[in-house]
Write the structure tokens for this entry.
Amino acid sequence: MRTLNKILATAAAAMTLGGAVLATAPPASAAVRNGACETGEFCYYFNSNNQGSLSDFTGSVGDYGTTQPSCFDYKGPGNGKAKCIKNAAASAWNRSGKTVRVYFNSNYGSSTYQDFKPGAKGNLIAALKNQNASHQFLGSTPPPSSTRVNLTYALYKAGGGHISCAFDGYTNTPGRHEGIDFARGVGSNVHSLVSGQVINLARGSNGRSGLSTIAIYNASLNKTVIYLHSAPRSSLRVGQQISRGQLIANEAWRGVSSSGSAHTHVEVRPGRQTRASKSVGDPTLSNPNPNSFWSSQGYNLR
């Protein structure tokens, strides 16, 4: 892992940009997880009979996480508020227009499941009560592999790039690497892999102490994708809406010791996050493995 200690540089960037970030809110039309079960959402409840705190979703989630502050949690008022929802739901209400399937296992991989048709509400079956590990909006399954795009190609929109360091939570190396590093060369165009709003921007400078950051929050997925080390385009601004595939940066070595180590670190964070996770001497894994997320977005992980 060549991603350096981000915590000091990103803290400085946050101080510089903090006013702009705090003043920026999602557009009124963007769905957000706010603890209210609204039209178009699927909602878990902590207690039976749709009682207690609730957690609302507008899309499929394959891994809820198990610890704060990175897990999907209950946001509404009532019993269970702020608890992680994994293996802790007793009932549900589907206010979306699609059937939603609740699974016993993460990543939609279990033969034990329960379907909630549009408008349905009720208790989870005994096999799933407090045993919910993922849910899927049916009809929203990932495209077949033959129609997917390689993640590296989508990032650069050109050949010649490669994954230089995969996500492994740093089980094999000191510290924790909670994203995926891609490399193609200084100056290579870097494109956004998801749509969303720029909620943090630190331009940085080449060299070890000049970390750059682009944080793009997608409200419907409730995920923030963070890009490090590449040079943000001069037109990029906090609050700007970004489309999938839009050019956002050029590969550089901002926060990296030498140009020969230039790369783009891409990190998927649960919820709305302005900064990447700490990466040096960090005993806590803050982000779930992103592989299932990228697959759900129609990408091959290569």
